[in-house]
Amino acid sequence: MKHFTKPIYVAIWAIFTSFLLVAQVAAAERIVSLAPNWSHTVSSLGAENELVGVTRYARFPQSLPDKIARGELPVVGGFTDIDIEKVIALNPSLVLTATGLQLNLKRELEKRGVKVIHMQESSLDEVYRGIDALGQTINRAEASSLLISQIKSQLDTIEQQYANQPKVKVYYEINYFYKCVPGADSYITELIKIAGGEPVFAERSGIAPMVTWDEIVNQNPDFILLPMWPGATGPIFSGTEAGSGTTTIDEVRGRVNANKVTAVIKQQVKFIDSAVTKQAGPNIPNSARLLAEAIHGH
To answer: What pLDDT is attached to residue 20?
Structure first.
């Protein structure tokens, strides 16, 4: 039997490792994330270096805004103002979109031959399926499975922690101008329940069904949660920018018949960081914790 000398073994090993390196480079994706929760998820799966484009709302993890600030990671827009030509110019192998607001964008990208994974954010199970699909697509199946397990485990712990707390009615005001709430097709509805709250109008279909202030007064919520995020501007009630920014607690107190609402009477109108609560990805447990702390005060 013929035996190889040590130099030959070294040469064969060098060729083999070179082949593996080439294969890994060839398999690397060029991912453009059009939603901050997707950007965070890609990073959590260990594929942050495969991100070639994100939005200006990419806040988590901190390494992403740091890269943006250094000019190392291109920004292709916000959320509803994505520049599709910038996206195409980045030559993506995969684009990640989210919610009904980006469905037309998804369709246009697919028309142009771009592979898209879309997350509607309609339920926790649908979010988990999206994370799993991403992991399978970018060769991070094990990491995605682990992430999903971690999220579920943390949510179970939070739910058990608040299971014996009194149930309270919660009005989560997604937008002060359009008066919409998390509906039957929103994972946020599930998180409020996990945190020990009873979201008003949770039975209405859709991700964010509209309501009226009179309906809210009649529901008489114990807590009113208002979205807040870094750099948020004040409320605008007219013109093309109406509904932009966020509102104030004083504006809520000044609404018609607000003095009849328990949340106002007991000073339980609170801000909540929507940059966390509206991110359907690794931040889901943090979202549940913020909701629980806002509702229960600890």
So the answer is: 39
What is the pLDDT at residue 212? 97
* Mean pLDDT within 232-257: 93
Domain ranges of the chain: 7-119, 158-296
DSSP state of 210: B
3-class SS of residue 105: helix
Q: What 3-state DSSP class applies to 68?
A: helix
Collapse the DSSP code of 97 into the 3-class scheme (helix H, G, I; strand E, B; otherwise coil) and give the result: strand
Q: Which helix (H) or strand (E) holds 228?
A: strand 223-228
What CATH number should be reported for the domain whose range is 158-296? 3.40.50.1980
Say which residue the tokens 């064969």 belong to.
12
Q: What does the mean pLDDT of the chain come to? A: 91
Q: Are 190 and 172 in contact (CB under 8 A)?
A: no
The predicted-structure confidence for 272-289, as pLDDT tens digits, reads as follows: 999 899 899 999 999 999
pLDDT for the residue numbered 25: 41
Q: What is the pLDDT of residues 189-242, one digit of tens each?
A: 999 999 999 999 999 999 999 999 999 999 999 999 999 988 888 999 999 999
Evaluate the omega torsion of the peptide bond into residue 92 and state whether it is cis, within 30 degrees of 0: no
Query: How far is Cα of residue 193 from the mean position of the Cα atoms in its chain?
Result: 18
- What CA–CA distance (Å, rounded) separates 250 from 237? 15
> Do residues 47 and 140 touch, judged by C-beta distance below 8 A?
yes
**DSSP for 125-169?**
HHHHHHHHHHHHHTT-HHHHHHHHHHHHHHHHHHHHHTTTSPPEE
Question: Do the domains at 7-119 and 158-296 have one common CATH topology?
Answer: yes
**CATH class, range 7-119:** alpha beta
The residue type at 104: N
